[in-house]
Amino acid sequence: MKTSLERKVNLLTAYAVASTLVFGVCILSSFNEKEKKLAVDELTAKRINVVDEKGELKMVISDKERQHSGRMNGKDFPKRERPAGIIFFNDEGDECGGLVYAGSTKDGKVSSGMSFTMDQYHDDQVIQILNDEEFENGSANVQRGISINEYPVGSNIITRNDKIEKLQQIADAKERDQKIQDLWDKEGSKRRLFIGRSRGNNSGLFLYDKNGKPRMKIYVDEKGNPKIETIGENGEVKNYLEDKR
Fold it and tell me: How far is the C-alpha of 69 from the C-alpha of 77, rounded, in Å?
């Protein structure tokens, strides 16, 4: 016959197993079988991956240590340091924009900012809402505004990076830098518009041609003077407000 102690151990074991099963059923029953919804009041995580119905990545919310390195043509970029924030991916799985931010003080210098970007198809950012701040010893280096850039039609960041990687193998530094610059002039981004506060503390509208050259400025300079300027092909500046005085 089983001793009293053995019976108690068996009863406790049976109770533990039954409690575990009941707890498991309660947890599973909290999910809707069709949509598996989970409602919580607060969630703490270092990274969250949002996927579509097929499990394909659509958005990553992450700290900087775990931030996604980016993806193009179905291939992830090598691991690299990126700010904390949100990275977006399009229907083909390519990175197509993001919202990132950072801010720190080191040796008395403040560096802070936030950037919301939208990328050209198969390439880098072409629309950016930016706040970029640096403060040190009472001086400021600040840019705030909206930028619109563009890449050539059909450009591809992977193809361009491969070309740059090959050019970087050129031994002669001067030749290497010139060829990389020539490639960028042909296939890189071109500034087309900026609205906001420039690093020179000018606030206004700045327009550029298809080659990224400034052609018109409507702004107030750091001294408070209003200006309307056009810039010629060779860099000659005409200020319409001064001409009317």
Answer: 6
Tokens of 115: 């950037």
Distance in angstroms (rounded) separating the CA atoms of residues 89 and 51: 10
From the list 75, 72, 65, the residue with the least C-alpha distance to 97 is 72
Tens of pLDDT, residue by residue over 184-205, are: 999 999 999 999 999 999 999 9
Q: What is the pLDDT of residue 202?
A: 96
Residue 57 C-alpha from the chain's centroid:
16
**Cβ partners under 8 Å of residue 197, min gap 6:** 142, 143, 144, 145, 203
* Structure-token match 């087309």, residue found: 192
Residue 219 C-alpha from the chain's centroid: 28
Tokens for 90, please give them. 């399009």
